Amino acid sequence: MPEFLLQMAPELRWALLAVFALLLVASSAIALLGVRYPGKDWRELKARINTWWWIVLVFSLTLIGQLQIALAVFGLISFLAFKEYLTLSNTRQADHVVLFWAYLAIPLQYFWIGIAWYGMFVLFIPVYMLLLLPMRMVLIGETKGFLQSASSLHWGLMICVFSLSHLAALLTLPGSPAEGAKLVFFLVALTQANDVAQYLWGKSIGRRKASPTVSPNKTLGGLLGGIFTTTLLAWLIAPYLTPLSPLYAACAGVLIGTMGFIGDIVISAVKRDLGVKDSGTLLPGHGGILDRLDSLTYTAPLFFHFIRYLYF
Q1: Maximum Cα–Cα distance for the chain, whole Å?
Q2: Per-residue pLDDT tens over the stretch 185-228
Q3: In angstroms, rounded to a whole number, what is the distance separating the alpha carbons of residues 180 and 159?
Q4: What pLDDT score was predicted for residue 4?
Q5: What is the pLDDT of residue 2?
Q6: 19, 3, 42: which is closest to 193 by C-alpha?
Q7: What does the angle CA 284 – CA 287 – CA 288 come to, to the nearest 5 degrees?
Q8: Cα(220)–Cα(233) distance, rounded to whole angstroms?
Q9: pLDDT over 90 for what percent of the chain?
């Protein structure tokens, strides 16, 4: 067995192996379906599963108990998400200098996590970057579109960097990255499972639209079914991956199920406002990186502060 797998907590190692086994089954099934039904177009489904392989492989790097590697991976994810967001939103020509300072906030945000400076981690972007970026824009002297540009730029930093950096911060909560990795896996697995469960419940029992103008495919049945499934999963797997009691595990499931849905439709509202279907093309079969991480932009910070308040 590879050394990095031996360094993982046993519960996490088995959970990760189960995910790889699931992907292997999915890839085999697609291959067999392609042989059985050659007339059907399986390319999109195949692309989605192939991309899942890459996502899980990259995500696995954050779980091997090496904080520096995890910070680099999460920092890269924030960079790609923020770059994608800026590509979608129209920034002013005059703000290109300001973008340098906005991008500089990404390594600094993860640096605060690396040196365990919690106070700076929670204040740096919400307070200091909120004040710094408009100040630098004022010095440029362009006032047309100032408020829209300043608010759009800071919102992007909050969603793509501040929110997602809470995933990395989870690694530092229990005192060792190896133990924190279990919390990261718990959050990411439940958030992704919630997305799948809401889709399946919506297809099965969804009748009434949950948000018809923003995301017409989301149904109330899908939302409630997803929350129920996520709460049940949280209650079942929390004893192996978290210090949560059964009651708090169920509360975490409700939190992740509900906030995952809200994160999803918030990013959908942004895309509708910008007139695009997907946030990008980085992940074949999935769209952009924000399409894949939309739910986590809400669940990551809320779960972090939920479990930190209760146990750390």
Answers
A1: 65
A2: 999 999 999 998 998 888 888 788 888 888 888 889 989 999 99
A3: 22
A4: 66
A5: 64
A6: 19
A7: 110
A8: 20
A9: 58
The answer to whether 263 and 295 are in contact (CB under 8 A) is: yes
Alpha-carbon distance of 217 to 72, in angstroms, equals: 35
Q: Give the pLDDT confidence score for residue 242 in this predicted structure.
A: 94
Highest mean pLDDT among 96-100, 148-152, 255-259: 255-259
Q: Is pLDDT of 174 > 80? A: no
Distances (CA, A) of 102 to 166, 170, 264: 18, 24, 24
Q: Which residue in 290, 298, 264, 223 sits closest to 86, CA to CA?
A: 290
Count CB-CB contacts under 10 A for residue 92.
Answer: 17
Distance, CA of 55 to CA of 283 (rounded, Å): 9
Q: How far apart are CA 166 and CA 168, in angstroms?
A: 5
Please name the residues in contact with 221: beta carbons below 8 A apart, sequence gap of 6 or more.
Answer: 201, 202, 204, 205, 206, 207, 208
pLDDT of 72 > 80? The answer is yes
SS (H, E, C) the chain: CCHHHHHCCHHHHHHHHHHHHHHHHHHHHHHHHHHHCCCCCCHHHHHHHHHHHHHHHHHHHHHCCCHHHHHHHHHHHHHHHHHHHHHHCCCCHHHHHHHHHHHHHHHHHHHHHHCCCHHHHHHHHHHHHHHHHHHHHHHHCCCCCHHHHHHHHHHHHHHHHHHHHHHHHHCCCCCCHHHHHHHHHHHHHHHHHHHHHHHHHHHHHCCCECCCCCCCCCEHHHHHHHHHHHHHHHHHHHHHHCCCCHHHHHHHHHHHHHHHHHHHHHHHHHHHHHCCCCCCCCECCCECHHHHHCCHHHHHHHHHHHHHHHHC
Structure tokens at 279: 């946030």
pLDDT digits (tens, 9 = 90+) for 247-305: 999 999 999 999 999 999 999 999 888 888 888 888 888 888 999 999 999 999 999 99
